[in-house]
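the two lines:
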Amino acid sequence: MMSQWWLQIRAVIRLEMKKTFFAKRGWWVYALAFAPAALFLAHSLDTMRDRDRRQALAAAHPVAREALESIGPGMTRDQVVARVGEPYAQRTMRFRRVESTLYFYTDGESDFSFSFLDDRLVRSGRKDRPNLAQETVRFAGVFQFFYLRLAIFFGCVGIFMNLFRGEMLDKSLHFYLLAPIRREVLLVGKYLAGLSATVVIFTTSTALQIWAMLWQFDSRVVGDYLHGPGWGHIASYLGVTALACLGYGSVFLAAGLLVRNPIIPAATILLWEAANPFLSAALKKISVIFYLQSLCPVVAPPSQDMPPWAVLLLSSAEPTPAVLAVTGLVVVTLIILVLASLRARRLEINYGTD
Amino acid sequence: MSGPPPITASLVVFEDVSRFYGEVLGVNRVTLSIPPGITSLVGPNGSGKTTLMNLMAGLVRPTRGSIHVLGVTPAEPEKLFRLLGYSTQFDSFPRGLTGFQFLYSFLRLFGHTHAECEKLAWKSIERVKMVEAASRKVAGYSKGMRQRIKLAQAIAHDPRVLVLDEPLNGLDPMVRAETIALFRELAAEGRHVIVSSHILHEVDMISDQVILLSNGYVVAEGQIHSVRGEISEQPMQVLIRCSRPSALASKVFEQDHVVEARLHADGGGLLIKTRDADRFYRMLNHIALNGIEIESVTPADDNVNSVYEYLIGGGEPTK
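prediction for all of em together
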């Protein structure tokens, strides 16, 4: 019997995969999934271009880092020039007879700017090239704030809700129901097809994001990272991505069996997940994000630039040990799938009212 | 020692089945036993034909009552669809598939191997004469081709019960005749072929038995001649082709059971209405022996159209 079910599950997966991967209506899932990879790539390219610019300027206007760091408030422009040479660029502004001048220097690694007011240095600024530690924290923020909560979330809405609902709309679901296949087996087949598609799409994007983030760094820095926590982080992020698809997939597969409009369950579940930090300990566990956040390898501190609502979304739940988090997520998923299969058993074809 | 199989194991049985869609009646208190052969479900739109078929296939569940298809309930799809094939009236297909891929994919759901699926798919495609179009996308098929590929899907796994919702819709006359021949062939193999139709003369041609539906109720069932015989309040109509219709008319008017006799438009026959068919046929034998040459005697309202009109239309059949 099990081998028969497995053959049927494979047949369902084969039918669904093509529809799921190449659905005309599903292009936005790819856009959502790969947008962060494109952003990290653009950021890396920009950082590399900036590094090349600094190095070219430093070659043309060589200056020692120590000399630049020794410049202090109150110095005159002549004193600064005497110590570090002429700036590679300068900008002068005049406001109500007060002249303000900015001098720009670089040692090839960092940008320095000195602001003079009436020939006296009043402020100095320094912009360092981003380091790997900063980038991993930035990555954690994007991963937890955008990728998990929005990209994977809505990607799963698009793919899993369509598995049953899409075929109801296309009026082709009955062909499945005319085959000698248990509804539970059909549900498992469809779920595995959706899971395969989302895991492939989103873990590929996660891997690309990590690659794009690391691209800007020297091979030595990357090598050090990979020999340190790097591979562990990568494995964790890929695992969390797959678990997010597992959890959200089950939720939206069930939602697709229950309601006609995907917006309503998506908005309700998004609110529920967002409210997770305020929930009681017991209620927190009935959510996907609770387990996923516990498994993220880098804590994403809220940025000062973030609006209050975004900070709330980032508020992490109390961390749960990894084994418990994975077990909890799998248990929640199984419970949802069992409930969905009960619903599938009672599923009727009534396209007229769907 | 195992005894003979229960009689229901060879029947499609509805026991006091009702189905409501909210407050709208689908079918009500349907009790039927459908034997092998061609059975036609006849009724106007909304009479409950499709609901009855969907109930048989488990696509909808009864609000009340029970259904058994050769002893299997529709709640057991893993058993039911090895016995039953259903060509629905839904004219939509999974996207992007060719006719062959459609059948092949469907058969894979049965758990068959690749080779078995290919073999069964081609066999079925040949049976509905779609070989040339099998490699084309279903989306590009004509209405008639879509009907045939649905029929191929319904028969592909060699089911003992075939349920076909308006299977002749959209078919050209030649294909229609071939399809009817296929139904007869399948029925002759001892299968149940249950078709719905609103084209009454076709039902007449193909059916071994009919089930007449109106507003969700079964108003008559059985062999069409038996059903007609049971409608005693309506006079039987008989068309007699004979050499001297006027002489025949004067003879038959002497009988108290004859309520009407009308000369046929072409002058070569007489349409007679009688309340007692048995006495009428005995009388006709007597007349034939007395010099009026009778060429043919045909029941003029012993067909589904007439029975349908009597039972559902509430009036006389239109000739």
